[in-house]
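User:
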Amino acid sequence: MAVYGFVIEPGRLVKRDYMLALQRWPAACDGLRIDVVSDTHTGSPRNGIDRLDRWVRELAESDAPIVLMAGDYVILSVLAGTYVPPDVIAEHLKPLTARKPVYAVLGNHDWWKNGNAVARAFSAAGVRMIDNRAVPVDVAGCRFWLAGLGDLLEGQPDVGGTFAGIPADAAVVALTHEPALWPRLPGSAVLTIAGHTHGGQINPFGMFTPRRFRADSHGLRGPYAKGGRMLFVTPGIGTSILPMRLGVPPEISRLTLRADNPRANVAASRGEMTMSTIALVLMGLVTLLHLYFLVLEMFLWTKPIGLKTFRNTPEKAETTRVLAANQGLYNGFLAAGLVYAIATDSREFALFFLACVVVAALYGAYSVNRRIFFVQGVPAIAALVALFL
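Assistant: Predicted structure:
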């Protein structure tokens, strides 16, 4: 698990789609695609210039006509990281800004490393910096206002001044770094986009991700709705302090904004609740069970606990231990598949491997002992039900 968290997951880059149904969103803007990145932290381990070029290329080639960047482009301090100056980062953003409009605000790390210098470098590369500024946007036949707010920790956000020049009937998307600013924004901001949390950065099984907005939570991730407004928190790309990601792979968030209607609401709710907390907890239980089966069958088959668990005699255990070890390895593969599904928040992988567990439990109940169905199959069935709920 530690190797995965330090070496594998921080080096990944996923593109995840979200459909958000917004109240008071113009019909002409229905279906608008926006790509969002944040907390890119270039220079953190497994996240150097090559990774920067990769996500820039992905964004440039995407079908979204606009890109929003929610802050923290440099690193202040991360174990084994290497500081990359903002002018170097900005130079590598030019292939993106040459293709489509890119709007950005600064994060707390940017201010700690001279926010004005970061803003100047990015502006020179074609990034439209909008800290404490509101600008009209006309893209793909859609017109709305984009309100950029300074970082809550270091950027002195000017909510009143930023919204003062926006027409009263305009649809507004707010962009800021710290999601805790969301409750302070006026109701005209139908959608607020933020970063900062890294989705918890170390968040196995989504255990630290609140299902309802909490301003003090460091595990905020994905969409949150309240009072006709929506907040979306992207989990970011880089790492901070500890160069580890677990359960929150680096992400380009691909938002599709829909005008509020029943069909869009159904789609949005499915997108938001792809993997509920209950489903993740049950999947974690099934994973732990199969890791336990692996240990029992591969290493403890002939030991007292193995003999007692499987009701074997020492003689029978000795003659079947190779077969048992083989069976233990299969259980390990099932556990590995579920770990991957949890880490990537992949509903499809979860469905496949949980279904495999249920089939194995049914066959074991038929061929060996009905107790297997209750021990192995029932938790997997419960997790499947939670996924569909």
